[in-house]
Design a protein that fits this description.
The complex is a heterodimer of chains A (about 270) and B (about 500).
Chain A lengths: L1 H17 L6 E12 L2 E12 L3 E5 L6 H8 L9 E9 L2 E2 L7 H7 E4 L10 H12 L5 H14 L3 H4 L12 H13 L5 E5 L7 H14 L4 E5 L3 H7 L2 E6 L2 E7 H6 L4 H7 L5
Parallel strand pairs in A: 3-8, 3-9, 6-7, 7-8
Antiparallel strand pairs in A: 1-2, 1-4, 4-5, 9-10
Chain B lengths: L2 H26 L10 H38 L2 H4 L3 H18 L4 H5 L5 H10 L12 H36 L7 H41 L2 H6 L3 E2 L13 E2 L2 H32 L2 H16 L2 H24 L10 H26 L2 H9 L4 H30 L2 H6 L17 H9 L8 H33 L3
Antiparallel strand pairs in B: 1-2
Helix pairs in contact in B: 1-2, 1-7, 2-7, 2-8, 4-7, 8-18, 10-13, 10-15, 11-13, 12-13, 13-15, 14-15, 15-18, 17-18
The chains are: A alpha/beta (about 270), B mainly alpha (about 500).
Chain lengths: ~270, ~500
């Protein structure tokens, strides 16, 4: 509980600092439903994602938190049987509008996956991948700058600068995940979605990634799915609790962990189920 | 007693042992001790202890007996025959053998009063439907009768011993039945050995095939120098007249090898792009319903016998290409009806399903995480395929292409019909060229004397082809395996 109180103190300071930006809603889900074939996975979820904040999605396995996350950059489109209903907006624009180019959307809303998935290419090529396909760099020098900046932001530059031409798959698990974060940052997204980014990592690597998430908040809006309550408490400003495809409740993280409104949240946080 | 009858008796003993063993195991289970194995395992164990040794003995004895009989006949042949050429001796022994099996058809009364000359014997055998070579000699009749009696004796011994072995084995198996006996583990062990035996047999067969070719190849190289074969640029084996000088004709491998590789290259030029693209379509784009139709339809191509492709090339495509080229030049066709182009195109079509099916598996094996990673960065599908999936699958695809290439090199029927038989050395794809496989077929068909370089060269060609495809397959498997390790 020691960590929790320290965290609360931190948050009190942070809350004041963020008061100005608090009100900007970056993404908004409005009665979002998802069907996988016959099975309904999400039931009318209303959830706001605030700019420059970390929003944590928690809940027991199969509760729909990853499904909701994958709706935010339309990754569910890649699954044949998935159908999405309701409305999701990014800067008040409906992202499921036929006028929206899904490829462009995904450049604005990047994603980091559960298992580190670097491409079987060099570290440099992994980071340069996004900028190349989106034509963000006019020449090699500009590309070099983007790669270096992204790796620096992902706190991997010092470890990787001497081995940029080595395969990304040769890094350790934690380094690979930071490489994937660097890869996502390289296309300058506005929102970064993270689907249990630390579940395949050891505690030390996890700590590094969490530290990184906190730093990234300054420039990006982050939505993170996590199984670890402590992680949600450590890294997020707001937490949303999912259960059986419904959003149970959503609120400031410190409130969720100390004084939740719903009994199910209480039970889940204290480890009575899940 | 015949081999089959003994085998049936042994099996019957085994089955009886199975029933008795199972019954006995059930009877022993009085509920006081927990049985180690279920009753039918005891039955199977009794069956196996009886049948396996008996059958193994039977098989070994049969092989040994035929070898013994063979040497027995050879040693019984008169001295002047045995001292003659090997071929003559083998021929005489063969005549004795067919005479002996012919005599089996006669009843015992006729056998007791067997005429001593072949001219008298022949009509009697002919009446029973046995046709014998006219140069069967009189002296062979007693040898044949004696061979038959020796073979009968050997058969009797083998029957008695193997039935005895079966009974002893069954007794041993039944005696061992007790509630704590580990019949289940024993049966498991036999299963393991029989599976091992099956896979060993496949390997031994391969070795046997190679060895059988190797001996003929060595015989060939005794008559023709290595350099003539491997570095000769002219293929002109001539005709193998009986008793002709050994080194007549030229056996240059190079035109055949060049033809083989050229045609395979053209075939791959057709098959690889089309196969690869259809694999990409099927694994990345096709809706499940479309895939369910297209994939089997493509694989149907692989089920067409290659001779049918050959006929298509010979009758349809070849003349079509020739006529088109004739129309283009307004008279003389520059594409021959049998040409590298025709053979390559048709073989390429044959190989499309091979490439697409192998590459489809490899592309599908690229983890979903790679696709998600790329799509999540805002790449389109085709960008993802071009920049992530194909590079990741590349080693596997190279392996698939090498496997396909070895199919192309070993392909026979299409090239026999479509490429022609002229051993040219040319770079013009519109002319006829020939391949190693075509020449093997050519050299081995027809009424040729066996022990001439003209025939034996087929084995040298065969082993060269084998070595070529073996190396390609090994490289392909190595690449594929290395690629697999990447994601594990």
């Amino acid at each position: 509980m020691n960590i929790m109180t320290e965290k609360s103190l931190d948050d009190a300071v942070n809350a004041e600092m963020n008061a100005r930006t608090n009100e900007i809603i970056k993404m908004r889900g409005d009665k979002v439903t998802v069907h996988y074939g016959e099975k309904q996975a999400l039931f009318g979820v209303d959830l706001d994602v605030r700019q420059n904040q970390v929003t944590a999605l928690i809940g027991p396995s199969g509760c729909g938190k990853s499904t909701f996350l994958r709706c935010l950059n339309r990754m569910n489109d890649t699954i044949d049987a998935a159908r999405v209903g309701g409305k999701i907006t990014l800067d008040s624009e409906d992202i499921y509008d036929p006028k929206i180019d899904v490829v462009e959307l995904r450049a604005r809303v990047g994603m980091v996956f559960q298992k580190p998935n670097p491409f079987p290419k060099s570290i440099y090529e992994n980071v340069a991948y996004g900028p190349r396909i989106h034509g963000l760099a006019k020449n090699k020098a500009e590309l070099d700058v983007i790669v270096e900046k992204s790796l620096q932001k992902a706190a991997l530059w010092n470890e990787a600068k001497d081995r940029l031409n080595e395969p990304g798959t040769g890094l350790s698990g934690g380094q690979q995940q930071r490489l994937c974060i660097a890869r996502a940052i390289a296309v300058s997204p506005e929102v970064i979605l993270m689907d249990e980014p630390c579940s395949a990592l050891d505690p030390i690597a996890t700590a590094k990634v969490e530290e990184l998430i906190d730093e990234l908040r300054e420039n990006y809006t982050i939505v993170i799915v996590t199984h670890s309550m402590q992680q949600a408490a450590r890294v997020s400003q707001r937490t949303a609790m999912f259960h059986l495809g419904y959003l149970v409740e959503e609120g400031p993280t410190d409130k969720m962990f100390t004084n939740p409104d719903d009994k199910r949240t209480q039970d889940y946080i204290t480890g009575r189920f899940g | 007693m015949s081999f089959l009858l003994v085998f049936a008796i042994v099996l019957a003993i085994g089955l009886a042992a199975f029933v008795v063993g199972r019954q006995r195991a059930r009877a022993q289970d009085d509920g006081t001790v927990k049985p180690h194995s279920r009753a039918h395992y005891h039955g199977w164990w009794a069956f196996l202890t009886g049948v396996v040794p008996a059958v193994l003995f039977l098989a070994a004895w049969d092989i040994g007996a035929s070898a013994y009989l063979n040497s027995h006949i050879h040693s019984s042949l008169p001295a002047d025959v045995a001292d003659g050429t090997v071929a003559h001796e083998d021929l005489s022994a063969g005549l004795v053998k067919s005479l002996a099996s012919g005599l089996r058809k006669l009843d015992s009364q006729t056998l007791a009063t067997l005429p001593s000359t072949f001219t008298e014997l022949q009509p009697m055998l002919a009446a029973k439907g046995v046709a014998l070579a006219p140069d069967t000699q009189d002296y062979m009749i007693p040898i044949a009768t004696e061979t038959n009696s020796v073979s009968d004796r050997l058969g009797m011994i083998s029957a008695v011993v193997s039935i005895g072995l079966a009974l002893i084995g069954v007794g041993f198996g039944l005696k061992g039945i007790s509630p704590r006996a580990r019949a289940r583990n024993n049966v498991e062990k036999v299963m393991l050995w029989s599976l091992l035996g099956a896979s060993t047999l496949a390997i031994l067969t391969t070795i046997g095939i190679v060895l059988s070719m190797l001996f003929q190849t060595i015989a060939f190289f005794e008559k023709v120098p290595l350099t003539n074969f491997f570095f000769g640029a002219v293929w002109d084996p001539r005709f193998a007249a009986a008793g002709a000088g050994a080194s007549e004709g030229q056996f240059g491998l190079i035109p055949l090898l060049a033809g083989t590789l050229y045609i395979a290259f053209v075939a791959l030029l057709v098959a690889v792009p089309i196969g690869l693209m259809s694999a990409v379509y099927m694994s990345e784009y096709a809706a499940p319903k479309v895939r369910a139709v297209v994939k089997p339809a493509l694989e149907l191509l692989a089920g067409i016998p290659t001779i049918v492709y050959g006929i298509f090339a010979l009758v349809t495509l070849g003349p079509f290409l020739r006529d088109i080229s004739a129309a283009l030049t307004g008279g003389t066709p520059f594409i021959q009806a049998q040409s590298i182009l025709t053979a390559g195109l048709v073989m390429g079509v044959m190989l499309i399903p091979v490439v697409s099916s192998l590459s489809d598996d490899i592309i599908t094996a690229v983890p979903r995480a790679m696709r998600d990673g790329s799509l999540g960065l805002g790449a389109t599908r085709s960008e993802t395929i071009k920049r992530v999936i194909l590079p990741a699958a590349l080693p596997g695809i190279v392996g698939a292409i090498l496997l396909t290439a070895s199919r192309a090199i070993g392909e026979t029927m299409i090239v026999v019909l479509a490429a022609g038989v002229a051993a040219n050395l040319t770079l013009n794809p519109f002319e006829a060229m020939t391949t190693i496989t075509v020449k093997i077929v050519n050299q081995l068909t027809g009424d040729l004397e066996f022990n001439t370089p003209q025939t034996l060269v087929a084995f040298a060609l065969g082993i060269t082809l084998f070595a070529l495809t073996l190396v390609m397959n090994i490289v392909a498997l190595y690449i594929v395996r290395k690629y697999r390790e990447q994601y594990e």
